[in-house]
Amino acid sequence: MKKSHGVLITALLCCSNLPAAQSGSFDYFSDQRLTIRNGVQAVLTCNGLFTSHRTIEQVFAQELAYLKDPVGTAAGGAYIVDPGRKAVTVGDGDAGTPVSAVFREGIGCVVLEPGQNLDDLDSLPKTTMPPPPDDPATIPWPNGDRVQERPVPESVDLERLREASNWAFNRETPEQDTLSLIVLYRGQIVHERYAPGVEIGTRTRTWSTAKSIAATLIGILVDEGRMQLDQPLDIDWLPELGSKETDPRRAITLRNVLNMSSGLETVDSFGMEYATGSGLAYWAGASSVDGARSRGLIREPGTLWDYENYDTLLAVLAMKQTLGDEQTYHEFPRRALLDRIGMRNTLVSTDRFGDFILSSQVYTNARDLARFGLLYQQNGLWDGERIISEAWIHFVRTPAPSTASIGNVYGGQWWLAPDDRDDVPEDTYTTWGNRGQFAIVVPSYEVVIVRRGLDYGKQGFSPWDLTREVLKAFKSKDENQ
Questions:
Q1: pLDDT for 147-179, tens place per residue?
Q2: What proportions of the chain, in percent to the nearest 5, are helix, strand and coil?
Q3: Residue range 291-309, pLDDT digits in tens
Q4: In a domain, 249, yes or no
Q5: Which of 76, 108, 123 is the last residue of a domain?
Q6: 213 and 84 co-located in one domain
Q7: Domain coverage including residue 234
Q8: Half-sphere exposure of 210 (CA within 13 A, CB side)
Q9: What contacts 376, CB < 8 A, 6 or more positions away?
Q10: 214/232 Cα distance (integer angstroms)
Q11: pTM for the predicted model, two decimal places
């Protein structure tokens, strides 16, 4: 029997203020929910203003649209915007504990501890690595942004491509809010479109599309032999009880966490994402590292698929430990990947302790994600240089064994075309970030599709439906031969 997984996936990725998951009527986490609500608004407003360079009106209309109860309006309220220090504070006590977020050059906005004031900003993480030389506007695509006019291959049906674009932008519900759409064919941009108020350089949050970027960075280290998929993570688990060697969590491997099958306690599901778990690190200034290694083992690793942000962050912690010193760790995303493929517009953010929140907190534009997808469509090669191995691409595209019962929908931090989709090529795979962030790779068609959105409410924008519509304009590699 075929199964439908849309409801499952939407529930896992949805970012609304979910109801309390309590057996009784009293919400014991209500104060934390308010604090996290303030943090969500602070981080999204800060990044909206100072990372994306949008107006406060745009921020309230789109970035904050998915919040059921935002603090104030674009005209004002219980929040403070400090343009001089590029900071935003939300909450005043009556509206919950105040939470601040501050923009840091090269990093994006960092959330402070609840109630922490702005007097000690110098203690926050910062980057000293200069930007790459040269102006990307003068560098030809795909390494830069100078796109040369060239005829679109005759095999591409431009009319059907326009119809697919209209399908993506003109949705039946305002909750599906498409910001940008890019389609690549054999590395060439054959379609590019932006919503009003959005430009080529506009950065927005990747949400969980960042997980695929994290997996790529880890894959580089695996290719170098510095990390191993099937060796246990060398983590100092919390709490520190007894001997490290006797902790059952020592059985968890890198493969397990990249497959979202760690076996660790669920903390982000069942309505708790915006009360406990990674929500405290994303939005309330808690340590992403301490939270990730504080869960207990409740099942055998590798046996059950459970979409948890902390599984990704455990893999990122293992990456940090492999790299050694802080400077090497902080420069690694750019040196190993971003600068090498022209992703100049991408900021990888950290928590206030300097640890990358590479499960969600990355800001980038559509073209950078198109470059990222192109790297995979080119089997890991860029300008003739190998960035990631074909073996690693095979791993991320291989269904996690624990997803067999739900349609083989997930690989190694990438989503896979479900078994019940017979309207898209089975080799299709995609990044998938909340609010509609997709970099879709279709190897059999030599196509990459990037869609950025600011969806809200029930959302439901499907990357598989988008793939189906776009591919109506193309022929497969076999048909072109």
A1: 998 899 999 999 999 999 999 999 999 999 999
A2: 35, 15, 50
A3: 999 999 999 999 999 999 9
A4: yes
A5: 123
A6: no
A7: 6-10+180-480
A8: 26
A9: 393, 441, 448
A10: 18
A11: 0.94
